[in-house]
Design brief:
The two termini are 39 Å apart. An eight-stranded mixed beta sheet has the order 3-4-2-1-5-6-7-8, sandwiched between helices. It is an alpha/beta fold.
Length: 392
C-alpha cells in the first residue's frame, strides 16, 4: 500500500505540481529528458511543491531503482514515487496527487505516463489541475517520420478527444512551438528553454594527447539519433580515426544494421562500443574527445550537445537542433544535409584540419558554452503556466 506524502514546510507553497514521466533519476538510459526534468524540478521556485510519478526501473532494464517502490521518497526537492505493479499502482500513485494545480507530462506519446493521466483528467481525477504537456521533440518532422502509422493514429484520436484544446504546451524553442501549433492549431504554447544542471563555466582541458582524431557518439542507439548515418559516412575515409560509441541499442534489428556497416569499414577506423555510461562517465569521455558527432533526425533541445560544450568538446551535428547558431558561431560544425555523403565530407574536412585546429576548436566551444550558459533564460515554465492560467 502506498505511503502518505511526507509533510514538508508549507509557508512558501502556493502551487502543487505532479510530474508524470516514464523515467526519473537515478535512471539515466533514457537520455537528456531525464537530466532536463531533474534540472527543471531543481530550479523550480520555492512556492512550487513537486511530486514525480515514474517507473521503478531504467529504460530497457528490469532491475529496480529503489527497494521501496510505491511509496513517496524524497529525491532532491521533490517527492518521488517509483511505481511497480502495473496500471493499478500508477492510478493509485496519481490519485494521491489529486490536489495538484498543474499536471506536467514529460512526453506526448507515452501511453502509461501521458495518455493515462490525460484520460484520468478527462474523467475528473484532478478537479482544479491543468495539463502542461512537454512533447520533448516528438512533434519534430524527423521524429514523426519514424513509426509513422502509430503516431498518426495516436494524433488522430488525440485530436478527436480534443485533449489538445484543454492543455497548455511547453516548447523548448520557437521552432518547437511552431511544430505544436502546426499539429494542433490555436493552442496555448509556453516557450521556455530547457533547464540544465551543467556548470556555469566550461571545463578547462589539459593539453591534448597525440593520436588520431577521437570522435564520440553519445545517445540512445536508435534510428532517430542517426548512428547508422554516421557509420555509413566513415566508409572511404582514408585517415586513421577513432570512434567511441556510448549508448545501448533499443532493438536487435537496428543493432544488426549498424554492425553490418561496421563490418564494411577499413582497418584505419577504430570503433569502440562502451555501452551506456552514467552521466559523470559520459562527461569524462567528452573531456578527451576531439569531436562529438550527432546526426540526429531532430531534437527539441539536445542535452548531449550542451553537455559536450560544457566539457569544451566541439560538436558536429545535423541542422535539426536549436544549436545551429551557437555551433556556427564557434561551438562546432553543422551538417546541413543529414546524409552519409554530407557527413563523410564534413568529417574528412575536420580530420584534415590537424591537431592544432582541433585544440582551437575545443577552446572555441568552451567559450561558446560560457556565453550560452550565462544568458538570461527567463521565467521558469511552472510560473509561466500559473500566470497563463490566471489570465485565462
Amino acid at each position: 500500500m502506498s505511503s502518505p506524502i511526507p509533510s514538508s514546510p508549507e509557508q512558501n507553497v502556493q502551487h502543487k505540481v505532479v510530474v508524470s514521466t516514464p523515467y526519473y533519476v537515478p535512471a539515466y538510459l533514457g537520455g537528456g529528458p531525464i537530466q532536463t526534468l531533474k534540472a527543471l524540478i531543481n530550479a523550480a521556485p520555492s512556492e512550487f511543491k513537486t511530486r514525480v510519478v515514474c517507473t521503478n526501473h531504467d529504460l530497457g532494464k528490469t532491475a529496480p531503482l529503489t527497494d521501496n517502490p510505491n511509496r513517496w521518497i524524497e529525491v532532491g526537492p521533490a517527492q518521488v514515487q517509483y511505481v511497480e505493479g502495473g496500471i493499478r499502482s500508477r492510478i493509485k500513485a496519481l490519485k494521491e496527487t489529486n490536489d495538484a494545480d498543474l499536471i506536467y507530462l514529460n512526453s506526448l506519446f507515452n501511453p502509461r505516463y501521458s495518455l493515462l493521466p490525460m484520460l484520468l483528467k478527462r474523467v475528473g481525477f484532478w478537479k482544479k489541475g491543468a495539463l502542461l504537456i512537454a512533447p520533448r521533440g516528438e512533434l519534430d518532422p524527423g521524429a514523426l517520420a519514424l513509426k509513422t502509422r502509430k503516431k498518426k493514429a495516436f494524433l488522430t484520436a488525440f485530436k478527436l478527444l480534443r485533449f489538445h484544446k484543454s492543455a497548455l504546451w511547453h516548447a523548448s524553442t520557437s521552432v518547437e512551438a511552431a511544430q505544436i501549433k502546426k499539429q494542433f492549431g490555436d493552442v496555448t504554447v509556453l516557450v521556455r528553454e530547457n533547464e540544465t544542471s551543467l556548470p556555469q563555466q566550461a571545463f578547462s582541458r589539459p593539453p591534448r594527447k597525440a593520436g588520431p582524431p577521437r570522435l564520440l557518439f553519445v545517445s540512445r542507439l536508435d534510428e532517430k539519433k542517426g548512428l547508422h548515418i554516421l557509420l555509413q559516412s566513415l566508409k572511404s575515409i582514408a585517415a586513421p580515426l577513432d570512434l567511441k560509441i556510448v549508448g545501448a541499442f533499443e532493438n536487435s534489428d537496428y543493432e544488426s544494421r549498424c554492425r553490418r556497416h561496421i563490418e564494411q569499414l577499413d582497418d584505419n577506423i577504430s570503433i569502440e562500443f562502451s555501452g551506456p555510461l552514467e552521466r559523470d562517465n559520459v562527461l569524462q569521455s567528452m573531456q578527451s574527445a576531439d569531436l562529438l558527432v550527432f546526426p540526429t533526425a531532430g531534437e527539441n533541445f539536445g542535452h548531449v550537445i550542451a553537455e559536450a560544450l560544457s566539457q569544451s568538446c566541439p560538436v558536429m551535428c545535423s541542422a535539426n537542433t536549436p544549436w545551429t547558431n551557437h555551433l556556427t558561431d564557434g561551438g562546432g560544425f553543422v551538417v546541413q544535409q543529414n546524409t552519409a555523403d554530407a557527413w563523410r565530407q564534413s568529417i574528412s574536412e575536420f580530420v584534415l584540419l590537424g591537431s592544432n585546429s582541433w585544440v582551437e576548436a575545443s577552446q572555441s566551444s568552451g567559450e561558446t558554452y560560457n556565453i550560452w550558459r550565462n544568458e538570461d533564460k527567463g521565467t521558469h515554465v511552472f510560473t509561466l503556466a500559473e500566470t497563463s492560467l490566471k489570465q485565462n
